[in-house]
What we know:
Radius of gyration: 20 Å
Helix content: 10-25%
Structural class: alpha/beta
Number of helices: 7
Distance between the termini: 44 Å
Number of strands: 14
Shape: globular
Amino acid sequence: MKVLFIGLGSIGRRHLSNLINYCSKAEIPLDITALRTSGKKLDMFPNLTVVTDYSDLSTDFDVAFITNPTFKHEESLNNIIDKVKYIFLEKPAFESSKDISKFDIDYNRIYIACPLRYKKVFGKLNQIIEGKHPISSRIICSTFLPDWREGDYTKDYSAKKAMGGGVELDCIHELDYMTYLFGFPKDRKAYFGKKSSLNIDSNDVADYLFEYEQQLVEVHLDYFGRFPERTLTILFDNEKIEVDLLNNFIYIHSMNETIRFEESVNEMYEKELAYFIEKVTTGVENKNNLEWANKVLKITEERK
C-alpha cells in the first residue's frame, strides 16, 4: 500500500502509528511518504520518505491522510486529488462549508474522520434506542482548551479564527454524532461568542437548538470548562437515558441500570482506521463521505 501523509502533528502521528500496526498484523507492505515543508524526519518513524513540496510527489498513491490544520485542507485536496485513490481527511473537512461540486471526484473516495461513532457506547446506544422516538435530547461538550495540547495554546490553530479555530469546528464531533443518531434537523437556532478570559480570537462557546419532526436537541460546546464534561441525555415519554463519553457508560433510568465499557482512548481510532481500510478503500461503503460531512458543517457554522 502506497500511502501519503500531509501533516504529522499529534493526530497525524496517531493515525500513522495505527496504520503501521494494522498493516503489520494484516501483512500488508507499506510504502509511506510524508509531505513536510520543514523537511524534517521523525525519529519515531525512520522509514518515511520525506518531501517538502507537492510538486515532488508521485501520482500513484493508494491512500492519503490529510491531517494538517483545517485551513490548509482545501489546498491539500486540490494538490493531491488526482494523485491518490482514497483520502482520509481529518475533521472538520474545511473551515466552512463549500460548494463541493468543484472537486471533480467521487465523494465516496473521501472519508472524513468521525472517531466518536466507533466508541462502544454508541454501538450499544443504537441498539437501545432503535425503534424508539426521543422527544428531547441534550448534548454537552465542555473542555479547557489550554489542557488540549502541550505548549502555548494561544499559538495553536484552535485559538485563531483565521486558521479554522473555534469550538464550533473543533467540537464538530458532537454535531456529527447527532446526525449519525438522529439524522439532519429541519431547522436550528445558534449563538456563538468569545465570552471567557482565554487569550484567543476564535469562538469559545457555541449553543444550538435543533428542531426535528419529533424532538428538540440542545447542543452546548465550550473551550473554558475547568471540569470536563462530554455527555448526551435523551428523554422519551417514559424513559431517560444518559451517556457519558468520558467515563464510558450508559445509565438507563427506568431500570436503574448502568452499562459500563472498558475502552482505551486509542480503540475508537483503531476501529475507524480498520473501517477506512476494509470498507472505504474497497468501495464497500463510506458512512461519512465528503457530501455528508459538508452538510454537517453547514449546520454548525455562523450564518451572516
